[in-house]
């Protein structure tokens, strides 16, 4: 597995703390940059769409939970690719890596095409059921249809990135997104300012920029000298590998779907408060989500490092990975939360600088959710640790019952009586806190290091 895009010993030998940071930082920056696609959409229409600015912001923001429902479902499946590749690298099983790469490509393209077609049919009835204001609903439908039309290339990038994560490489996906991110911003400005388009222009820019990033990663996979080399002549589905990917990925995908369903219900409640609150929440989401990508990078680092070391039966290093991902995550995530609390208002104002009421409402979301992300760090890392061992179903079920159950109950029972934006936002720290406790209890019950492998002596320093 030696080659210019991965180092087979990087996760299996030597100090862990610096390698985890080296893996997590590019991954966090990749997620943040990917989110900037949507942020750029909202910022450009908010600043340059004239009188339609606030309505266009609301239309794009109303799509966020629906798009997350689709994309995150496939991201859950791509976690299966991540774990399978990581385990195979640890075992030095090149054949499994090859089969996983080519099987994943087919899943991404075929799944993307099927869902894109379905989305065109269901776009209008779904979005009209979301309490979106009459002035914004047609624009929301238009944005959704164009974005979903580009789903095959969006999913292709994410599955390619999962392969690179399994190999231990997060830098190449980050470089790809730097390039495509610049393309996205330039196209946003071109479509909206030069051509006078609104949500259709920014949606098209997002799709085209994702096409760039997927082509860049495909180029690297075609030219790598590792077992992950992509060869179109070998493009076929391995039923055994697909089964393993789905065994890990489907529970994560179901978790993402139920999670997103709860967020769709929350978004519908937000929509019921009017266009201003919709636009404010949309702008704030694109700020507070940066905090999520930081904590999630440590969760994914825990999955990959645990996966490779479990594959190599280095259980001691798996346990050290869990501890270090939590400790380092607390420090880095804490700094990100502090930054967003201090500068959140100024960042929200970039979307709509002449609308102070929108900024104040948006900052309420930033305050509630970024502080709640400290709870998310614990359950993301502990869940990632269990997924590295191939334990995926039980963390998904726990998360569904605690987070999603709490949020659905809250909207229908509490928000119904206290019809305000803060009364919606407070459910985030409550649900995330409960889930962290539940996942910790599950980890104590599962004890994968004790049940799935015998610890080996490891002399390397933390």
Would you kindly provide a written description of the structure presented here, covering whatever features stand out?
- The chain has 462 residues and is mainly alpha-helical.
- The protein has one domain (17-452).
- It is built from 15 helices and no strands.
- It has helices at residues 17-48, 53-91, 94-128, 134-149, 151-167, 171-194, 199-223, 239-271, 275-311, 315-349, 356-388, 393-415, 421-425, 427-446, 448-452.
- Helix 3 (94-128) packs antiparallel against helix 4 (134-149) and helix 6 runs antiparallel to helix 7 (199-223).
Tally of domains: 1
Helical segment tally? Answer: 15
Q: Beta-strand percentage?
A: under 5%
Average pLDDT metric: 86
List the defining traits of the structure above.
mainly alpha, 82% helix, disordered N terminus, disordered C terminus, single chain, 462 residues
Give the helices and strands, then pairings.
Elements: H1 17-48, H2 53-91, H3 94-128, H4 134-149, H5 151-167, H6 171-194, H7 199-223, H8 239-271, H9 275-311, H10 315-349, H11 356-388, H12 393-415, H13 421-425, H14 427-446, H15 448-452
């Amino acid at each position: 597995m030696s080659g210019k895009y991965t180092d087979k010993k990087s996760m299996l030998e030597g100090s862990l703390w610096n390698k985890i940071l080296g893996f997590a930082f590019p991954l966090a920056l990749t997620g943040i940059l990917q989110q900037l696609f949507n942020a750029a959409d909202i910022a450009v229409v908010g600043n340059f769409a004239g009188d339609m600015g606030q309505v266009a912001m609301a239309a794009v923001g109303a799509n966020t939970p629906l798009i997350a429902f689709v994309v995150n479902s496939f991201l859950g499946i791509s976690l299966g690719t991540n774990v399978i590749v990581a385990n195979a690298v640890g075992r030095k099983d090149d054949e499994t890596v090859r089969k996983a790469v080519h099987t994943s490509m087919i899943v991404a393209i075929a799944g993307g095409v099927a869902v894109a077609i379905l989305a065109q049919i269901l776009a209008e009835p779904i979005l009209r059921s979301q309490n979106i204001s009459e002035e914004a609903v047609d624009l929301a439908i238009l944005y959704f249809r164009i974005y979903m039309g580009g789903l095959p290339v969006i999913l292709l990038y994410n599955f390619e990135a999962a392969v690179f994560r399994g190999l231990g490489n997060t830098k190449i996906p980050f470089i790809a997104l730097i390039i495509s991110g610049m393309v996205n911003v330039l196209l946003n400005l071109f479509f909206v300012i030069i051509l006078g388009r609104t949500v259709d222009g920014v949606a098209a820019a997002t799709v085209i920029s994702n096409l760039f990033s997927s082509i860049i990663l495909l180029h690297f996979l075609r030219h790598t000298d590792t077992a992950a080399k992509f060869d179109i002549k070998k493009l076929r589905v391995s039923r055994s590998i697909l089964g393993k990917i789905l065994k890990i990925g489907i529970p994560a995908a179901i978790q993402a779907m139920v999670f997103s369903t709860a967020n769709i219900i929350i978004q519908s409640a937000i929509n019921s408060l009017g266009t201003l609150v919709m636009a404010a929440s949309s702008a704030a989401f694109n700020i507070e989500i940066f905090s999520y990508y930081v904590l999630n990078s440590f969760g994914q680092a825990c999955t990959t490092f645990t996966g490779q070391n479990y594959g190599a039966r280095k259980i001691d290093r798996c346990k050290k990975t869990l501890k270090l991902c939590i400790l380092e995550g607390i420090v880095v995530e804490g700094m990100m939360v502090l930054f967003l609390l201090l500068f959140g208002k100024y960042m929200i104002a970039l979307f709509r600088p002449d609308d102070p009421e929108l900024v104040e409402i948006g900052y309420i979301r930033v305050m509630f959710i970024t502080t709640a992300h400290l709870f998310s760090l614990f359950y993301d890392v502990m869940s990632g640790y269990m997924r590295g061992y191939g334990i995926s179903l039980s963390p998904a079920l726990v998360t569904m019952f605690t987070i999603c159950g709490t949020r659905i109950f809250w909207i229908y029972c509490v928000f119904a009586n206290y019809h305000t934006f803060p009364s919606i936002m407070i459910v985030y720290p409550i649900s995330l806190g409960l889930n962290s406790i539940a996942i910790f209890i599950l980890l104590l019950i599962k004890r994968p290091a004790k049940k799935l492998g015998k610890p080996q002596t490891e002399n390397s320093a933390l």
